[in-house]
Structure formats: C-alpha cells, structure tokens
Write a structure and sequence with these properties.
Length: 269
C-alpha cells in the first residue's frame, strides 16, 4: 500500500513538473522589453491598445513621452533631436538586457539617433511608417523629397517659427483616416502644436554603430503623410531586408492596433 501511494505521488509530481515546464515554454516571448516612441503631433496615448496586447502576452512595455508632447511643457525653443534621443536613452538605461526599440513617423528620426548612440542595447530597431534618414539627413530633407505627401500644404508655422500646426480640418484625414470615430476624437482631443527645431536637426550615423543594429520596417500602404513611395526609397537606402505591410493610414496602432501588436510579437521571435 505504501509503495502504491509513493508511486502515485511520484507520478503526480512528474506530471506537475511537466505541466509547469510546458507553461514556461509557452511564455518564452515574455522576456521581451519594448520601448515605444510616438511621432509628431501625437503622444503616448496612441500606443495604449498595443501596450495592452503586448503586456497581456507577458512582455514589458515602456512608452516614452517625448519632451514638448503630451503633458510635458518643455519650451519648444529648448528642444532638439538630441533632447528627444536622450529621453529615450534614459528609458532604455532603466531596463535590463536589450530592447526592441520602435519608432513611428518623426519618432523614426529619434530611434535612429538613439541606435547610433547605444547600438549594443538594441536587439531590434523597428520603424512604423517612420522617417528613416541616412547620415547627414534631417526630417525636413526627407519630407521635402516626398511629392506624394499631403502633409506639407496643411502645415501652419507659428509666428516665431518655433512650432508647427496642422489645419484643424485635416488632422484626422492625414493621421487616422481609417480610424473609428472614437480614434479620431482622441486624436483631436490630444492634439497640440509640434516643436519645429528637431525637424531640421541632422543625424550623423556610422557603420560601426547604427550599421550594426538589426532593422525592420512596417510599411503603411494607405499613408498620405509619409507616402509608400518614400517609405520604399528609405528602406532601399538603408538596406533593410525585413519589411511588413499594413493596409492602413499613418497611424496603424490606432486603426488596427492588434495587427501592429501581432507584428511586434512576430518580430521579437
């Protein structure tokens, strides 16, 4: 009788251990840390649904609020691309291990600059409908080379040239034309003028730093802010081989957040 009980306990222990091992195996993706960087005229709220998806899969997610955005009131005259980049570097420095660094739109300039400064901390560099400069380029250089973009005619500089507005009746058409009424309402409610100086700041990139970082690009095929044509040209110049496509406007994390989350999870594997 005693031997029978011991045998049953042993079997139960083995089955329990196996079940625990299987669960751990399923959660291997939970070791990823994502650092998400928003674009111009936007703020951390745009990543809310994506963050929820990633966290529910057991991942760590850090959303960076760039200075001069959201509820940060840093004066626009004191903002530069390096100021933005330092904010991201600070966030990365507070994590353990390497991160998956994601940048959208203007955030692409930021994450590019960050990758040059701390390449060994970045496991994957992901661009979502983002500006992807070559060395010596500024955002304005890329934007002016995009004849298919509809953003330029909608821009209204402030009198002191320190900020840029977008015509109110164009904001949702440009950034989230395929979004729900709720998405569009959030974009309008969180809108504020964009600091202008970082747009003209050029990046300096090297093969030994930026060139060593693994890069992925997620294209937005219905984008009228950064046209698919410019996205293709930037991808080619950068030599990126891993490219995904979404049939969305400029802000897929608002209109199709689960598609974005699925891609970010796939990229991490």
């Amino acid at each position: 009788m005693e031997k029978t009980i011991l045998a049953l306990l042993s079997t139960a222990f083995i089955l329990s251990a196996f079940a625990t091992y299987t669960g751990d195996e399923d959660n291997t993706a939970a070791t990823n840390t994502y650092v998400l960087v928003h674009g111009a005229w936007q703020a951390p709220y745009v990543w809310d649904a994506v963050r929820t998806d990633l966290v529910n899969k057991g991942n760590q997610v850090i959303i960076v609020q760039l200075p001069g955005h959201g509820d940060d009131n840093t004066p626009p005259q004191s903002l530069t691309l390096d100021v933005y980049s330092n904010k991201v570097i600070e966030a990365v420095s507070e994590t353990k291990g390497n991160v998956i660094l994601v940048g959208h739109s203007m955030g692409g300039m930021v994450v590019t600059n960050v990758a040059e400064k701390i390449p060994t901390r970045i496991r994957k560099l992901v661009y979502i409908a983002a500006f992807l400069p070559a060395s010596g380029q500024a955002l304005t250089d890329l934007a002016y080379s995009d004849p298919d973009s509809q953003l330029g005619p909608a821009l209204v500089p402030s009198a002191d040239k320190l900020t840029l507005d977008v015509l109110n009746n164009k904001v949702t058409d440009l950034f989230v034309s395929d979004g729900s009424p709720t998405d569009k309402k959030r974009v309008i409610e969180n809108y504020r003028p964009e600091p202008a100086i970082p747009f003209s700041n050029k990046v300096s990139l090297t093969d030994n730093h930026f060139g060593t970082v693994s890069k992925v690009y997620i294209k937005t095929l219905n984008d009228v802010v950064i046209s698919p044509g410019l996205q293709d040209r930037m991808i080619t110049v950068a030599g990126i081989k891993t490219v995904y496509q979404l049939k969305t406007s400029h802000s897929p994390f608002l209109s199709k957040p689960h598609d974005v989350s699925d891609l970010l999870l796939k990229i991490a594997r």
